[in-house]
């Protein structure tokens, strides 16, 4: 989500010049993390109450700024390729004047008309409707590698930072109505086998409880704790232990 506010004084001469480039500060919210950015944007006069705002060049975004570095490393290992740990963001918006003199419905109509007159932006959209079994399995596998489900040390209390990924999971489960999903909890080797098994069970159960709270049928989710029995990396380093502390999603039916 990109949010910003434009100072009207910066556009005082826009009706005359019709188009100008200005610096614009904005916030980018991604996976629950918000970061400030600034970029040059082109502002185009559409009418007395409408302007179009578009980025003049792609804005570089580092994965590490949004706690996505761990997920990228896992995807690199799974796919056997090198992934550049950054992406770019571009935008093209239409803004309506924020004024009490303009009826809200009229402003909405004007915004839609102006947007319709602009060339369609190039966007990557998730297809609507149910997914086939192969697509469902692939998405659950990818979500298992993103490393974006968080718990405090030794706790099964979900960190709020986990919600964006879990909400994406809810959407995918609902679009795979024929499948049952196993939520598997895993830990590193610190502590006893018994305590790690119990912790992994509680964490998997907490994820299931969250999904059920979002109207996923209880019968479609199984939670299982594996403790430290299925490591994906040696438990000899902090990085290896971090990778082993994970939640995985597997199609079981």
Features:
3-stranded mixed sheet, 7 helices, 60s Ribosomal Protein L30, Chain: A, alpha+beta, 5-stranded antiparallel sheet, Lipocalin, 2 domains, about 250 residues
Indicate the CATH topology of the largest domain.
60s Ribosomal Protein L30, Chain: A
What do we call the CATH homologous superfamily of the largest domain?
A: OmpA-like domain
**How many E strands?**
10
Radius of gyration: 23 Å
> Average pLDDT across residues?
81
CATH architecture of the largest domain: 2-Layer Sandwich
Q: N-to-C SSE series?
A: EHEEEEHEEHHHEHEHE
Q: In order across it, which strands form the biggest sheet?
A: 1-2-3-4-7
Helical proportion, percent range: 25-40%
CATH domain class name of the largest domain? Alpha Beta
Strand content: 25-35%
Distance between the termini: 35 Å
The helix/strand class is: alpha+beta
Report the biggest beta sheet as strand number plus sense, adding barrel if it closes: 5 strands, antiparallel
Low-pLDDT stretches: 100-126
Total count of domains: 2
Shape, per Cα inertia axes: elongated
Q: How many helix segments?
A: 7
């Amino acid at each position: 989500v990109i949010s910003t506010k434009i100072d009207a004084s910066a556009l005082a001469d826009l009706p005359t010049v019709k188009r100008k480039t200005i610096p614009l500060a904005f916030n980018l919210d991604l996976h629950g993390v918000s970061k400030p950015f600034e970029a040059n944007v082109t502002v185009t006069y559409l009418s007395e109450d409408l302007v179009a705002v578009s980025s003049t060049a792609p804005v570089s975004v580092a994965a590490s700024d949004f706690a996505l570095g761990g997920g990228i490393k896992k995807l690199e290992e799974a796919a056997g390729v090198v992934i550049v740990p950054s992406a770019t963001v571009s935008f093209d918006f239409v803004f309506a004047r924020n004024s009490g003199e303009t009826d809200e419905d009229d402003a909405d109509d004007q915004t839609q008309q102006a947007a319709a007159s602009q060339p369609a932006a190039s966007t990557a959209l998730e297809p609507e409707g149910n997914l086939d079994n192969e697509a469902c399995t692939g998405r659950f596998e990818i979500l298992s590698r993103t490393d974006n489900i968080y718990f405090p040390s030794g706790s099964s209390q979900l960190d709020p930072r986990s919600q964006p990924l879990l909400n994406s999971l809810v959407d995918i489960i609902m679009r795979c109505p024929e499948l049952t999903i196993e939520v598997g909890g895993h830990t590193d080797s610190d502590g006893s086998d018994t305590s790690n098994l119990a912790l992994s069970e509680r964490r998997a159960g907490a994820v299931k409880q969250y999904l059920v709270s979002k109207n996923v049928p209880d019968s479609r989710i199984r939670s299982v704790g594996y403790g430290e029995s299925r490591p994906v990396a040696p438990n000899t380093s902090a990085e290896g232990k971090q990778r082993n502390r994970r939640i995985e999603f597997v199609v079981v039916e």
